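Exercise: predict the fold of this chain.
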Amino acid sequence: MRNQVAEKKLEARMIQTNLVMGSSDMVDRERNQKRSI
């Protein structure tokens, strides 16, 4: 059971970092678009 809890926490952390990375990725894309215009 302990393993499952650890895996869930790891998964949640991965999703969190992915969300953070994704949001910064979107900001970078918007900046790049403004530069190219």
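Check your answer against the key: The chain has a mean pLDDT of 85.
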